[in-house]
Design goal:
single chain, alpha+beta, four-stranded mixed beta sheet, 5 helices, 4 strands, globular
């Protein structure tokens, strides 16, 4: 495994660990993928397969990623992440355009 792949995996694991500790209800995302129209079919397919990648989607600890971006449902978790990035909890206080750039770099909606 190359350094870049190891770094991506390490970042994903760290993000999931932080989110599980910091965000109330974060664990529910795993269940909500199954009923969320945009992700339902791909999530069910991946859940039933082992170490599978379909159309750039894959699971890590039962959380959905697309092209190494964390898939976030339209819930209060999404709003929290955007707010947290903007005001500085994760990366520092950003203006609107920088906030959008950082959100798009890390998350898939």
């Amino acid at each position: 495994m190359g350094n870049k792949t190891a770094d991506v995996l390490s970042c994903r694991v760290m993000l999931l660990s932080i989110m599980n500790v910091e965000v109330t209800g974060f664990e529910r995302l795993k269940e909500e993928y199954e009923s969320y129209l945009e992700f339902e079919e791909i999530y069910m397919t991946l859940r039933d397969e082992n170490n599978c990648i379909v159309d750039g989607y894959h699971l890590q600890k039962r959380y959905l990623f697309r092209d190494n971006k964390f898939c976030i449902l339209k819930t209060s978790v999404r709003e929290f992440l955007i707010w947290e990035i903007h005001v500085g909890g994760f990366l520092g206080h950003f203006e609107r355009n920088k906030t959008i750039e950082e959100v798009e770099r890390s998350f898939f909606f």
